[in-house]
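Listing S7. Sequence submitted for prediction.
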Amino acid sequence: MATEAAQQLIAALTRRRASGAVVSADEVVAALDRQLDAWNVTRVVLADDPLLEQLGVADALGGDRREVLTWPPRLGARELLGLEGPAATCGVSVSVAAVAPRGTLMLAASTGQGRALDAAAAYHVSLVPDDRLHDSLAGALGQVYREGPPPSALSLVSAPSRTSDIEKISTLGAHGALGLHALVIAG
């Protein structure tokens, strides 16, 4: 089921303290639910993307365990960052392309997927249809720019946010998500 490119993407992400899995379209919701449970997520902010709607993600994740919101959420910055309300918030995006050997996800800013979706929440899950996997950045950018007008911004995400201070003490989640998980959709 898993293509070589999908395995390359997941291996590259894993080397950088992220994670991922290859799933069929029928398995996306269950795999996403398991990851959210592993992180004890109580609030999910979903990109307003047709793929998420087609997969029934919002309906499947809602209920008593989690608050499910669609981008743009009607939250203030403090709530979105987890400084007020639930701290365990996860942004769920759909990658427009990915560079498999580098483990780089490309996220395009749009009205349905804001630039802060992957950075403001404590955790981030991105869905990557396997036909969006590329061997190079040039190939990935070529796909993005062939599909229509260029997005206002492209985020290249390869790992959970990390920074180090002058004493070389590494901190995860300083400028973005603390955890990153990619679900490559085969097929």
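Caption to Listing S7: primary sequence and predicted structure tokens for the chain studied. The chain has seven helices and twelve strands. Residues 4-15 form the longest helix (12 residues).
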